[in-house]
Design brief:
single chain; alpha/beta; Cobalt-precorrin-4 Transmethylase, domain 1; Rossmann fold; 3 domains; five-stranded parallel β-sheet; five-stranded mixed β-sheet; globular
Length: about 400
């Protein structure tokens, strides 16, 4: 019987290593690291965060995609959505003959084009339970790149569902990871979930828990972010906390604390633990990158450039942290730095559209640099080089 499910790759790292280096490596970034994450060229000083760019989970997902192409050179390979939230990486996979299956408007996937002879990649975010089951029923080869940190969250929410606790997930209801995570509760008949985006939504939830908000208010705010058949009066008596791994770590912890206090107020402090569970499901790589930024912005900086996809949750959160302390430009790649005009195109924090700023690059400037966990080093290096070219300065490598 042939094996049709793989989670540990194919042992082909040596064969694909040259391609990975060619596609994502940066000599300039290596050079800056060797200099202690500080580069001075002319009147410009760059300060790199100690942790940035590709995390282990992203590295692993991209590596498995390359290994799959090497292992199955003559087979059709499909990818369920984007492997990570970086357009350059996804476009590169497409040039390798990996077809991306895009979700429909309602967020669902059509697998009618997939046959038992094909190979399907599951992205780092994971997929919903029903999508995984549909692919297994087809009988195709599945290469599962779901990040280990995401799997840890799945285990938590499934344990909540098994024990009759509603999973309250701090995340974005439209994000692939949160959809996959909340679907795990459907494995159990009593499984329930509710998604909160931020502290404002958490406050509404807590006001309901202590009898200060109505069921109608809850339905309006959360009706599209709860499991089917959710009963606000019955399903919030026991709550377990989890989070989308790329959310702001401090905010996730604050949300957990706020909900616990509300349950203590409702049931009494002595019985709070009977109604509340919380496990640390914050991704270590997310935490490390956020901690590195908090350390970097304590240094004298004139601005921060944050590099990564505009639809990348962890990149947006890095930009939000930086913007509280220093002028911050979130760019999706180096082309946002216009060599002809010297302008920078960027997405302001919480904005939906790009803005543009001219005359942003002043004399004797110190620029902090970081990047989201789905941003390869070559894109970071290209951004630094463009800044230098706008000033008319040479690259040091």
């Amino acid at each position: 019987m042939k094996q049709t499910y793989f989670r540990k790759g194919f042992g082909l790292k040596r064969e694909i290593e040259g391609s990975l280096v060619a596609d994502y490596h940066s000599r300039l970034v290596d050079h800056v690291r060797e200099l202690g994450n500080k580069l001075e060229v002319g009147s410009i000083t760059f300060r790199l965060a100690k942790e940035f760019g590709f995390c282990y989970g992203v590295d692993r997902a991209v590596e498995y995609a390359y290994e799959s192409r090497q292992k199955f050179p003559d087979k059709r390979i499909f990818l369920v959505g984007e492997i990570i939230h970086n357009p350059h990486v996804n476009e590169k996979l497409e040039t390798m003959g990996i077809a991306i299956l895009r979700p429909t408007e309602d967020g669902r996937f059509d697998f009618s084009a997939v046959s038992p002879e094909d190979v399907v990649l599951i992205p780092a975010f994971g997929v919903r339970v029903e999508d995984f089951s549909a692919l297994r029923d087809i009988g195709c080869v599945l290469v599962d790149t779901t990040c280990g940190s995401v799997l840890n969250v799945w285990k938590r929410v499934e344990s909540y569902a098994r024990d009759g606790f509603t999973a309250v997930v701090h995340g974005k209801h439209f994000h692939e990871e949160t959809k996959a995570t909340t679907s795990q509760v459907t494995k159990h008949e009593r499984g329930r979930f509710l998604i909160v985006r931020d502290m404002d939504e958490t406050e509404l939830l807590c006001r309901f828990l202590v009898g200060q908000a109505s069921r109608e208010e809850m339905q309006e705010a959360f009706g599209h972010k709860v499991s089917a058949g959710f009963d606000f009066d019955k399903d919030l008596a026991h709550i377990g906390i989890a989070n989308q791994t790329t959310m702001l770590a401090g905010e996730s912890l604050a949300i957990a604390d706020r909900i616990r206090r509300a349950l203590a107020q409702r049931y009494g402090s002595a019985k709070a633990d009977e109604h509340f569970r919380s496990f640390d499901t914050i991704c270590s790589a997310t935490q490390e990158r956020q901690d590195a930024i908090l350390e970097l912005i304590e240094e004298p900086l004139d601005m921060m450039i944050v590099i990564g996809g505009y639809n990348s949750s962890n990149t947006n959160h890095l930009a939000k942290i930086c913007a509280k302390k220093v002028e911050t430009f979130h760019i999706d790649d180096a082309t946002c730095l216009d060599l002809a005009t010297g302008a920078i195109r960027y997405k302001p924090v919480d904005a939906l559209e790009q803005s543009e700023k001219r005359d942003w690059l002043t004399d004797d400037v110190t620029i902090g640099i970081t990047a989201g966990a789905s941003t390869p080093n070559n894109k970071i290096g290209e951004a630094i080089e463009r800044v230098l070219r706008i000033r008319g300065l040479p690259s040091p490598v």
